[in-house]
Amino acid sequence: MPDRYPPYQTCHRRFQEWVRAGTFETVLQTLVRDVKERGGLDLTECFIDGTFVIAKKGAQGWEKPSGARVQSSSQWQTALVFFAVSVGSASPHEVRLVEQTLDKRWVQEKPERLIGDRANDSDPMDARLAAQGVRRIAPHKSNRKKPKTQDGRELRRYRRGWKVERLFSWLQNYRRVLVRYDRFLENYLAFVFLACIVIYIRSYF
Would you say the pTM of this structure is higher than 0.90? Predict the structure, then answer.
C-alpha cells in the first residue's frame, strides 16, 4: 500500500482519462479473450437477464431519472463467465435490449443458445437470432395467444437461470454499481466494467 494517495482531483482526472480512452473495457475484453483461449469460456449455453438500479435525478442518458437498467449476458461453467454487458434506459421493454447486449460482446463468436426468462418471449426476435445461428430459449408468457414454439426438453436449461441472478448479486456488492451516483453514463458504465474485472480476476486468476 502506498504511504499517501494522490488528491481527489488527481484521481478523478486520471479516471476520466481512462474512461475516454476506453481503458476499463479494453482490460475486461482482454481478460475475457484470455479465458476463452484457455478453454474457460464455453458459448454453448448462455443466460441473459436484466436488472434495475436507481439513478440519481439529472442522470444523463436516462429517459426516466428514477431508474436504470443494467443488462448482462452471462455464460456459466464451473465458475462465473460472462462476455457482454450493456446499460440502457429503464423505459424500453427488456426484450429490446437483448440484441443490443449481444452486439456489445467481447468475443467474435455468438452463443449457440441464449436462455432468458418470460420477459424475453418474442417470436420476431427468435427468428432474427435464429438467422444468426443463435437458438433462443425462453418460457412462454402465461397470456400468450400464439402457438407454442419452444421445445420442452430445451426449456429444462432454464432451471439454471438462477446463476445470472447470482451475477447481479455479485455486481451489486459494489456501491457504485448498486446505485448510479454518476451523472454521466460513461462514468457509471466504467464502474460496471471495473466490478466485472474484479469478479473475473477472482474467478480465474
Answer: no
Joined together, the cell numbers standing for residue 130 give: 435464429
- Below-50 pLDDT ranges, the chain: 64-68, 72-81
And the C-alpha cell for 178?
448498486
Question: In the chain, what is the straight-line distance between the N-terminal and C-terminal CA atoms, in Å?
Answer: 21
Domains of the chain: 8-140+149-204 (3.30.420.10)
Give Cα separations from 155 to 25, 118, 149, 163, 192 (angstroms): 33, 11, 11, 15, 30
CA distances from 166 to 76, 84, 119, 198 (A): 11, 16, 18, 15
pLDDT tens per residue across span 90-149: 666 777 778 888 888 888 888 888 888 887 778 888 889 999 999 888 777 776 767 777
